Amino acid sequence: MSHEVETFVYNGMPAWHGLGMDNWDGKFETSKVDWEVVKIPAFASMLDGEVVYVGKDALVRKSDNKILDVVSGEWNTVQNKVAFDFFAEFCEEGNMKLETCGSLKGGQIVFALAKIQDSFELFRGKDKVDSYMLFTNPHRYGWSTSVSFTPVRVVCWNTLNLSLNSTKGDKIVKVSHRKEFVSEQVKEALGISKEKLAKYKEMAKFLGSKKATGEDVVTYFKRIFPVLTKKEESTKEMSKNAKVCVDILETQPGAEFGKGTWWQPYNAVTFFTDHLASRSQDARLASSWYGSNRKLKVTALETAMEMAEAA
After folding, report:
1. SS3 assignment, position 99
2. How many domains is the chain partitioned into structurally?
């Protein structure tokens, strides 16, 4: 594993984009994240030999004494066992299957992914979209324990993290580490996941019904991946990423579904970010779930809807 993906285990499903190992039994004790964190006061050694408390705590993993981050005194640790037990309970109550678990960025991000029974199909059942819940327990300052609704296009495993508490944007349900973790608050917010899937289905069907001209598609890719120069952008200029999306428009997995519609260029963007961007697959995964590409894909969906409505 590289520095982005520390551990990744699977329960009865193929490895996600070739990462991790299978044969996980779904239990916390065998999840590879069965470790605890503690806060240890941080001190600084002064030039005169004096040792001074700096008002911060080191967040340390007990299993190997690794410092995960430096946090404030108000930081409340949410142990992986507490987070895992909540998510496992939610999966049982919601008839969901816990399929993956692991840690990213050296243990700073612990995650679990569960499949929801709900799904939908487009183009007479040929293009299927499954739905997942991505649960995150971070050991990283400024981050919060969160849950996001994540639809996955089966034909290519393209992902999209959708908001659970707003109709637009990328905001995710969060529980701050400055207060105690209360699972009931998250459970209440999760009640609208079905609404989100229905909304995404409506958007997907709309994109798959609206024709997209070649000129509009190029404009779309240029809006999603603008040329980043100090000079005024020429109407003929295209960024490298935009050119790649043009190239894969007709060759991406599932390109035959919704061909010539706005569903096709939108999925070219999600396929690019999930499978081609960055130097490694684990870096792509971290960015798609938690980094800049997560926001970019939400923007790609909203922009596609805007341009399809105007067509």
Report:
1. strand
2. 3
Beta bridge partners of 26: none
Please tell me whether residue 17 adopts helix, strand or coil conformation.
helix
Q: Report the DSSP pairing between strands 109-122 and 127-138.
A: antiparallel
- Nearest-10 crossing angle of helices 263-271, 240-248: 120
What pLDDT, in 10s, does the model give residues 52-111? 888 899 999 999 999 999 998 888 899 999 999 988 887 887 788 888 899 999 999 999
Lowest mean pLDDT, pick from 95-104, 142-151, 186-195, 202-211: 186-195
Examine the fold and report which residue of 191, 215, 239 is the final residue of a domain before the chain moves on. Answer: 191
Backbone angles phi, psi at 155, to 5 degrees: -60, -25
222: left (phi over 0), alpha (psi -120 to 50) or beta: alpha
DSSP string computed for 242-267: HHHHHHHTTTSTTTTTTTTBTHHHHH
Contact 288, 157 (CB under 8 A): no
* Domain edge (last residue) among 191, 221, 237: 191
| CB proximity list for 136: less than 8 A, separation 6 or greater | 109, 110, 111, 143, 145, 146, 147, 148, 290
118 and 248 share a domain? no
pTM of the model: 0.84
Identify whether the C-beta of residue 84 lies closer than 8 Å to the C-beta of residue 28.
yes
Burial of 34 (0-12, 13-18, 19+ CB in 10 A): middle
Residue 198 included in any domain: no
What beta strand segments (E) does the chain contain? 5-10, 37-45, 51-61, 66-72, 97-104, 109-122, 127-138, 145-153, 158-159, 173-175
Taking alpha carbons only, the member of 265, 16, 5, 235 closest to residue 110 is 5
Q: Do 27 and 167 sit in the same domain of this protein?
A: yes
R_g of the chain computed on alpha carbons: 21
Pull the structure tokens for residue 261: 């519609």
Number of other CB atoms surrounding residue 18 within 10 Å: 8
Residue 208 sits in the same domain as residue 236: yes
